[in-house]
Fold:
Amino acid sequence: MSELTDLGVAAIRDGVAGGSFTATEVASAFNTAIAAAQEALNAFIVTTPEAALEAAARVDADRAAGKPLGKMAGVPIGMKDLFATKGTATTAASHILEGFVPPYESTVSQKLWDAGAGMLGKLNLDQFAMGSSNETSAFGNVISPWRRTGDTAPIAPGGSSGGSSAAVSARLAPAATGTDTGGSIRQPAAFTGIAGIKPTYGRCSRWGIVAFASSLDQAGPMARDVRDCAIMLEAMAGFDAKDSTSLDLPVPAWEAALSGDLRGKKVGIPREYRMDGMDADVAHSWDQGIAWLKDAGAEIIDITLPHTKYALPAYYIIAPAEASSNLARYDGVRFGLRDLPEGAGLQDMYAATRAAGFGAEVKRRILIGTYVLSAGFYDAYYTQAQKVRTLISRDFNQAFQTVDVILAPTAPTAAFGLGEMVSDPLAMYLNDVFAVPASLAGLPAMSVPAGLGREGLPLGLQLIGRPFDEQGVLDAGLAIEVRAGFKARPAKWW
Amino acid sequence: MSVDTATVAKIASLARIKITDAELSAMVPELNGILAWIEQLGEVDVTGIEPMTAVIPNHQRLRDDVVGADPLTGGGIRDAVLANAPAAQHGFFGVPKVIE
Structure:
């Protein structure tokens, strides 16, 4: 039965529909794989094997009764623990949400269950999705299933969707949800040799997702290939009146329209992304990507995105500012942790609760956000950053007048070892240098595996598209996937 | 602009996060490192540029003015609202005494 865990979303959906195996067999196989890996990888905060089996039994019964099956029928998935799941603890990997059991279901997770998916468990992440290595979780680090060649040192699975990336690459789930505020789907996907797409801002409802930076947060799928991402994104996307920024647009049939034929398409190569001292493996894989897209029929055009170097500092004003406001709700009154020292008043209770509940990185970002929004500094920091954000968005608009899609690396290096970056917050932030510009402009962007670097760790390539053009991103991703022929997987050591 | 210990203590108080002296002295250089790096934004000429308000053009909707039109966001669910409260009492959120 173990080979069932090698199957992706499309293969499971088709196999269940065709009767090659049952959804229950699939769910059992993944439940077994998770149980065997949990201690070593720590990818899940909570496992929910019964939920996966119940969903599978419903699909098997529907099939037996001849009822129509959903887009994700029989596919068990991992759910990033940032999505509220009714009756199952939801923590955002923070102590401050300890004991919180949502009485409601997030829109995106509900859509996935309605499409026939089942929940294997809630996946670990950086606390409140703030981090690039999954080292800020209150529930311990996630360990990547990947290791450097000839070395057993633990490697970061990326972040913030590090449980998602570890679980999918270790074959503990065929796919998982992620969320991306400044690269949190794309960077972990690149670090673990899987695919992941952040759609256009507004495609997926944010209702029921623990908020980090509301003008940037977007949910998206993480899976082993481009087709699987297209299928799952179709199930996740769609208008939701409960999210005021939800796009009131029909969900395209991305899977059916997939085509790796790029004849007549123009691909932009942004010169500002080729930075001084760029990692040789990353530069090489980018050059390979250019050659692959040319081979697929695309015309390659050099473009300029002049404000690229300002994207990351602008992000580290805007995202903490929004976070400091969003996280004001954790006050020890309505849900989650309460720390009430003997004889304390209400204000002391707030301060004690937040001190005990938030991790160091979350506090750091709340303090930065509070500072840049405070009287006397608002214009110099926050307004300036929002103006720079306009310029970054304008750079992309101008580029998209001549090109259809942009190709760039996903991250500046392959995965690093756990503990190697954690003492220097600024060095950690720089990991998102290639991912953040598309987030600030709300654009669809995807990472696909491109190959292995010199240490035997995966490298990803990023495709950035016009607003609403997930299809263009997926198609170019498919063209790379076909030519990269990425078959590497982590050797099973757990 | 850089921050000193007193400023960080003030920010922490505004953010309602209790902070120890040891945390405070560790946080000052970290925040200054980040703020110094952010300073480069000042180089950008933003003359005549509007600050971004909506990243993807969208229109603001008003929902129908009907109570409980969507049961997920409607009223009449007091017990569900209070279910996660650390100290719910008599149908209310319990907090420490605020009036002497």
Remarks:
- Chain B touches chain A through 55 residues (CB under 8 Å).
